[in-house]
User: Fold Putative competence-damage inducible protein from Thalassobacillus cyri.
Amino acid sequence: MKTVKAEIIGVGTELLLGQIANTNAQWISAQLAAQGIHVYFHGVVGDNFNRCVETFEAAQRRSDLVIVTGGLGPTEDDMTRDAANELFGQTLLEDAESLKRVEHFYQKNNRIMSPNNRKQALVFEHARVLQNHEGMAPGMIVEHEGVLWIFLPGVPSEMKHLMEKHAMPYLYDYYDLSTEIVSEMLRFIGIGESQLEHELQHMISSQTNPTIAPLASEGEVGLRLTAKGETKQEAGTMIASLKNRILAKVGNYYYGSGEVTIQQKVIGLLKEQQLTIAAAESLTGGRFTDQMISVPGASSVCEGSLVTYTPAMKESLLGVPGDLINEFGTISEECARSMAENVQRLTRSNIGISFTGVAGPDASEGKDPGTVFISLRINKEQELVKKFHFNGGRETVRNRAVKKGYELLFHKLKKDFSSPVPGR
Assistant:
């Protein structure tokens, strides 16, 4: 199959204003990628005729496949058909089946259909009409001067229905998508995106099939591996081979594949080792524990948490000595250590973890915003206190602190309690 340059265009001023997110483009891109069709451009254009025409003309020049969502409704600002027809120059006709569906909707709901609703049944003269059983406006497929155009409603449920039932099967035949595509997402924590790319530079620079795509998120990094083969088994074997080569170099940072989260991985390690945990949280405000107990089965390892935000609460509820607070402050290595020890003692857990710091926006106790101390107390022998400085706003600092807590736990549990299996 030749390389297909695909483009997705969303029509609607509401997308530009940020009133709704363009989730249609994200979903369509995933469907096309799964079939080996490369999306080169995402675009959004408002409900303006001239700008729609300009956007469509640019897509015609640079893409092989253009998928347009939105602008097929009955109102004056729904101008996708008219703008596209500046390119196509076709007659717009009423599709009898689509019109019948529109009329039936109003009859069923005992409502009078205004004349402008007939607009939803208009289709291009030479279009392949995609009947919309989830709504009223049909989809259309038009081939114009070597470019394949697909028009879909903007309502996500209608768009997905037409893509899955009509558009994707059509594309499968049109482009002879006989190649099987297999992907796997590898997830890493404790290594930055730039360092991960540096470690794997030779593999990334020489990639052809399979391919490696680094994807960074807050506090962790992913690698999406994608392989094409004559069969799924062949593509899967290629993925497995590449994965083994990657883990041989950076497996110490790997925590799982697919949709697994670091919270799930940590809970799994705690269960394997029959350990329990409790948290003492200050700046994170219970966020660490909330993320843990959001995972089904967390009750078998999580004893609970104490959120002690003020110095008085740290002293009265958690038992942090007042003298320690007076001497070192609450934002200190000493306070973090005491918080972890005391929450472990009070809950009789195997592990105590604590978070204290300055989320911002202002400094506190002479410490800059983003200063965070995290402490781990494991049984009676092992203790760890780390100081971090996270950049970003208040919420970013809090989220990064929580993610760093899970990172420290994962690497500590894996190193001290797990058998040294590469990539585990």
User: Anything to note?
Assistant: Confidence is low (pLDDT under 50) at residues 419-424. The two ends are 37 Å apart (CA to CA). The chain has three domains: 5-174, 180-257, 262-417. The first strand starts at residue 5 and ends at 11.
